[in-house]
Amino acid sequence: MPITEFLSRNARLYGNEICLKEINLDLQERHNVLWREYELIENNPKGEYRLEMTWRVFDEKANRMANLLIKRGIRKGEKVAILLMNCLEWLPIYFGILRAGAVAVPLNFRYTAEEIRYCLDLSDSVALVFGPEFISRMEEIYDKLPKVRFMLFAGENRPPFAESYDRLTANCSSEDPNISITDEDDAAIYFSSGTTGFPKAILHTHRSLVSACYTELMHHGQTRDDNFLCIPPLYHTGAKMHWFGSLLSGSKAVLLRGIKPEWILRTISEEKITIVWLLVPWAQDILDAIERGDVNLSDYDLSRWRLMHIGAQPVPPSLIHRWKKYFPDHLYDTNYGLSESAGPGCVHLGVENIHKVGAIGIPGYNWEAKIVGEDGEPVPQGEIGELAVKGPGVMKCYYKDPEATAAVLRDGWLYTGDMAMMDEDGFIYLVDRKKDVIISGGENIYPVQIEDFLRKHDSIKDAAVIGLPEKRLGEIAAAIIELKPGCQCTEEEIMEFCKELPRYKRPRRIIFDKVPRNPTGKIEKPRLREKYGVTRLVAAQVGK
Questions:
Q1: Residue at 428 is within a domain
Q2: Is the torsion defined by CA of 431, 371, 213, 116 positive or negative?
Q3: Do 178 and 55 belong to one domain?
Q4: Domain housing 461
Q5: What's the pTM?
Q6: Beta bridge partners of 481
Q7: Could you tell me where the beta strands, DSSP code E, fall in 65-172?
Q8: What is the pLDDT of residues 15-70, one digit of tens each?
Q9: Which of 433, 457, 474 represents a domain boundary (last residue)?
Q10: Any bridge partners for residue 202, and if so which?
Q11: Which is nearest to 206 in space by CA: 363, 76, 347, 71?
Q12: At CA 280, angle to CA 362 and CA 437, rounded to 5?
C-alpha cells in the first residue's frame, strides 16, 4: 500500500479535525506566506500567527498539486523537487507529488545555488517548487537547468522565470487522480548530508516510507490523543519520518518556526504538546536557559509532555542526565538512523531502557543489526566494528551511482560507515564515523568517545574532535571546545581534566571556538578540518 493511502484514510475518517498547525512567534522570520489563506492572531502587535489545516484540506491540497503535475505532463516516475522552508504547504506539496506517481526530491534549504543546480541535475528533476527565500539563488541558475521543464513559486512577488503555485493549484481538481501506485514504485530521493563532499542521491520506494510509519508508531506509541512538535527541517528524513507516526495514528502535529528555548516551551504549553523531537544543540540550549534563569519552568504548563527523543547525531549521556534532573517524568528515547535507512529507527534505545543511556540501542521494529570487521564477518562481543543494518526501510540505491551502491549494500545489508560495539545485553554503542577515526601512532582514536567525555566538564557546552596531520604520529587529536555562555576555561584546565582519559586518547591540541553543526545537528567536521589545517592552527600544543 502506498503511503498516500494513509492520507486518504485520515481525510475520510477525521476530515474536519486539525492535523497540522504552523506557528511562528516572530513574524519577521516568516517570508513564505500565501497571505490570503491565513489569519494572524487577533490584537497581536508582535505579528505572531498560528495557521491550521484539517485532514480534508490537506488531502484536497495534495490532490490539487497532483492534478496540476499531471496536467503539466509529469509522468509516473519523473522527479519533482521541493525547495521550501518548513511551512504548512510543505507536506501537501510532498504528498501531491507522490499521489501523481512522481518522485519527490526534497532539497536542503542551506544549499548554495551551485549545490541546488548539482542536485537537480543528479536527480533528473523535471520540475521544482520553491519559496521566496530562494529567489536570489534561483536567479543564478534558472537558465542553467536543461532538465527542469517548469518551476512553481510558492509565495508573493513571483519572479518572472517561475509560475504561481497558488494560482495554478487553485484551478485544479481536488479529487484524487487515482494513479496506480505500488509498494515497489519509486517514491522519494533524499540527499546525504554532504559532510564529505557533494551529496549522494538516495532513492526510496513507497515500501520504505510505509515501513518508517510503522517503525515510528511502534517505538513511540502515538495515539490520536498525541500532538507532535516538529522543529527540524522537513527536507530531512528525520523530521518527516517522525511525523509519519502522526500520519499513521491520525494525530496532530505542530510545525514550529524557531528554536529559541522560550518559544519551544511556550508552544509545548499552549498547544498541549505530548511528543518533542529535539536535536542535541536545542536540548542543550533549553537546559542552559533554565540554569541561567532565562526561563522558569513554572511559567509553562508542561503536564501533557510525555516523551522527549533525540536523534541525528551521537547523544552525550551527560546531556540526558542533566535533562532528567529538570524533567524527571519524561520518557526518553534515542533514535539512530540514516537517510539510507528511511530515516531514524533502524536502531533505537527504547523508552524502557533509560538505564542504558549512552547506547544507541537495539535493532528497531522490523530491523536487524550486526557489527562486522573488515572481512564482513561479525566481530566478538565488546569489539569495535562497522555497524550494518537490514530491514524494509533500506534504500533502493544511490541514484545513478552503482559503484557507491555496491560499496554499502551487500546481500540486503546496509553498511552504515559507523563504528560501533555491542555489549553483553545486545545494546549497541556508537563509537564514531569510520571516516572520522583518527589513527595516531598506530592507535585508533574514536572522536565521539572523547567528545562525550569533554561535555561532562561543567564549563563546556559542546566539543568536536578532529585529526590533524603530525609528522611523527601521522595524526593527533585536536579538540574544538565551545564554552557555555559566561564561562571561562584555560587550555591547561582542559588538559588537566583530560588526564582521566587513557594517554593515547587525550587531545594534543585545544582550540576554543564555536562547534558548527548542520541543520540536522551533525558536527560539520570538514569545515573544522579546513579551518584548522596545520598551517593555520594557532593553539596550544601539549605533550611535546
A1: yes
A2: positive
A3: yes
A4: 437-541
A5: 0.82
A6: 463, 512
A7: 79-83, 103-106, 125-130, 150-153, 163-164
A8: 999 999 999 887 544 444 443 344 444 434 455 678 899 999 999 999 999 999 99
A9: 433
A10: 190, 398
A11: 76
A12: 65
Same domain, 254 and 122: yes
Q: What angle do CA 74, 78, 84 make, to 5 degrees?
A: 85
Cell of 171: 484551478
Per-residue burial over 171-205, b if 16 or more Cβ lie within 10 Å, else e, is ebebebbebebebebbbbbbbbbbbeeebbbbbbb
Question: What residue ranges in 349-393 does DSSP mark as E strands?
Answer: 362-363, 368-372, 385-390
* 49 domain residue, yes or no: yes
Residue 366 and residue 235 share a domain = no
Residue owning grid cell 571546545: 481
**CA distances from residue 440 to 472, 474, 533 in whole angstroms, order as listed:** 9, 6, 17
Burial of 221 (0-12, 13-18, 19+ CB in 10 A): middle
Q: Could you report the per-residue pLDDT of 443-478, keeping only the tens digit for each?
A: 678 788 888 889 889 899 999 998 887 766 667 889
**Grid cell 504538546 — which residue?**
273
For residue 510, tell me if it sits in a domain: yes
Cell of 321: 542526565
